[in-house]
Amino acid sequence: xxxxxxxxxxxxxxxxxxxxxxxxxxxxxxxxxxxxxxxxxxxxxxxxxxxxxxxxxxxxxxxxxxxxxxxxxxxxxxxxxxxxxxxxxxxxxxxxxxxxxxxxxxxxxxxxxxxxxxxxxxxxxxxxxxxxxxxxxxxxxxxxxxxxxxxxxxxxxxxxxxxxxxxxxxxxxxxxxxxxxxxxxxxxxxxxxxxxxxxxxxxxxxxxxxxxxxxxxxxxxxxxxxxxxxxxxxxxxxxxxxxxxxxxxxxxxxxxxxxxxxxxxxxxxxxxxxxxxxxxxxxxxxxxxxxxxxxxxxxxxxxxxxxxxxxxxxxxxxxxxxxxxxxxxxxxxxxxxxxxxxxxxxxxxxxxxxxxxxxxxxxxxxxxxxxxxxxxxxxxxxxxxxxxxxxxxxxxxxxxxxxxxxxxxxxxxxxxxxxxxxxxxxxxxxxxxx
Length: 434
Prior knowledge:
Elements: H1 2-31, H2 33-63, H3 70-95, E1 98-99, E2 104-105, H4 107-131, H5 156-170, E3 176-180, H6 187-201, E4 205-212, H7 217-227, H8 238-248, E5 255-262, H9 268-271, E6 279-285, H10 288-293, E7 301-302, H11 308-319, H12 326-336, H13 341-351, H14 356-366, H15 380-391, H16 395-405, H17 415-424
Parallel strand pairs: 3-6, 3-7, 4-5, 5-6
Antiparallel strand pairs: 1-2
Helix pairs in contact: 1-4, 2-3, 2-4, 3-4, 5-6, 7-8, 11-12, 11-13, 12-14, 13-15
């Protein structure tokens, strides 16, 4: 009998201990509910950040014809699944954390969700520790395009052309989209504006390359590769680079390749641009026949010149406030710029802050109809306006400008290199070093 009583007492004591432990744990989950959910969110943020870095590394490896290990792929899949599970758990925690119209806490739900939150937090922490060593300390960033100028003004002609381009980009049947217009009418500025809008809306991943009158496939490939995070290491020939580019574009992404200032026929396959459903091309040129020759989708988009009123408004933006007796001369100067934005901006900036005598001299210079030597037909007016703005620079500025002109067309000129050459050529004569 005594043995039986002893057994009963031991069982009762064990039951009390178990119930006490369970109760203490339940209380912990209930009262620490908010802290557990907060820790869950923070650990999820870390996992998402690491997951995105792993995704970038996988994309880069795929573009460079490398295959990730099965272990990395498995853990990457686990990360995505765990992130989705945590999202659902957070929604449940928010929806059922209280009852009675929010007056009382829902203790049962808090206990159950709090327990799961703690378990998921530990699982994410372990996965973070496993994925983190697989990441490089640093990685090459995709080269960002230069953002469009903040002083870009959307006149009716540019707005119409921009809207036409965006509509074509949204049309699945439009793959090759062409923009044409006179030199100096603002095609490059418009393309930069479109690129920025496309990136902000996340419609496409963009690549931008300037082609010019003598297309260099090597340079075009390098510009495109830099924008999509691709590196050329062993590929020395244009054909090998094209093959690597074609492989990089075969991802599950939508690309827009923007080619500016095209003067002659381009072979997209030779460059490495797989024009198709996941890769569209937006091209600008001065010559409409280029678009027909390259079989661009009709109709081509035309960027017209400014109206007289828009030209006058643009001139006032860059020249500043214009009062009598400047206004009449200013209007005649604007007329001589022939509604070309590049010419209006150059002349207006040059004249800003100068006296009436300088404005009248500018008008006489711009009205000089003697045709300059070796200037392509149709470019005389922009040339005349740009030449005037350059002639008004001081001696040092002109020397620096001419020094830049010696560099290849559309090349990026490092300031440090430019300054070294300038000192070597004794352009800065008034600067001395002890």
